[in-house]
Amino acid sequence: MTDIQETKESLSASLQQVIALLDKHKLVEQLVHNQDMPKHDLVESLGHRKNLVELQRKLDSLHPADVAYILEALPLEQRLDVWELVKAERDGDILLEVSDAVRQTLIADMDSEELLAAAEQLDTDELADLAPDLPKDVFQDLLDSLDAQNRARLQSALSYSDDSVGSIMDFDIVTIREDITLEVALRYMRRLGELPDHTDKLFVVDRDDVLHGVLPLKRLVVSDLDAKVADVMSEDAVVFHPEDIADEAAKAFERYDLVTAPVVDEHHKLVGRVTVDAVMDLIREEVESEMLSMAGLREEEDFFASVWKSVQNRWAWLAINLVTALVASRVIGLFEGSIEKIVALAALMPIVAGIGGNSGNQTITMIVRGLALGQVASHNMHSLIIKEMGVSLLNGLLWGGVLGGIAYALYGNYQLGIVMMAAMTLNLLLAALMGVMIPLVLNKVGRDPAVGSSVLITAVTDSGGFFIFLGLATIFLV
After folding, report:
1. pTM (global) more than 0.85
2. Both 190 and 142 in a single domain?
């Protein structure tokens, strides 16, 4: 057995081995190419082939997800060198594992025949993930190569929005009738040879594929084999519809400890299933997307993308940051006279703004999490605001008092200490109010509350903190 740490270390070691083999191959190639010797071309060809065989053997021993990790960690030129050595029958699996940005670079290096061959190796639900990145002519050829049933399934899967259950369901299901015995069901399963991945239950349907219940495998193996499926099956299974929100399905998987769940249409006809691995992929993608959004990135970025592409991905929120920074600078400009008279203000005002920003981000994190879990809504907004304002008031008085004492100790001015404590308290109250309101307003207008919230709260607490601190100082000290 291998634990997570060992897996991580093994993956890192594999990456270093691939890099070392690439460097060795390049070095040997340069040395042989520069040497003047008999049968130069033969020697160069043999050395070239030896290194590539060793590298290919290493890649063949790795799981597709591990190869994807290595491809994502390599600069474009080395990435394409490695990609050429991957066996053709593994192309499809690896394309599914790599990030969207890296997948585009790999697809751009493949011709139509290679892409079609890679796609034909995949199941219908996997094709639905890959199809949007395929060139139109390749996608059309792919549709033409499918039988009627799989073509209809693929077109159906592509018709659902990315945030729906239909976009993550698969069609690899095992169905049985309710009027057979468990012994017959077992014989049927043995004839199949193997079950789809993550199968923990069989779906009980009638001749029209209408779902009547599910038969958990654990019941199947412990029950009397002469019993009917109808007597053992569960009729209260958690069921989804293709149009359901995928996030809600993920919460249901966590709440009810599901491994698989059936998906039915409006007539309760079984159309597919959702599996726990698809739900885990969805959660991982959402977490990554949220992290990127909070940093002001519009999309996942290839580490080795061109400078221009990276600039296009990052410029939007930097522009907003520039505007907010200009606003903050103008607030400071309003109090230039006060700062000239009391130089200590210039040293202390970043503390007020910085602590306010941190406090606001803490509040935003709690609210965004609550919105994601469905625990925050308009009915409890008033209570949330009062609670967060209370927390900020206590923190403001406590840490404002500490900073006020430090300011008095440094500058020997008790009035400056009082102003520092008051400004800290007021800015934390402002941060709490905005920390609740910003994500709620974004959510209300249909925007992702995680996108840009940290940038907006920083802008508010910076400008507000400067204005409060310098305004109080102007009133009571100047």
Report:
1. no
2. no
